[in-house]
Amino acid sequence: MSPLVKNILAVVVGLLVGGLVNFTLIMLSGSIIPFPNGVDPMDPESLQANADLLESKHFIIPFVAHALGTLVAAFIITKMAVYNNRRLALFAGLFFLAGGIMSVLKISAPMWFNGLDLLVAYLPMAWLGWSLGKSSEVD
Question: Are 118 and 101 spatial neighbours (Cβ–Cβ below 8 Å)?
Answer without folding.
Answer: yes
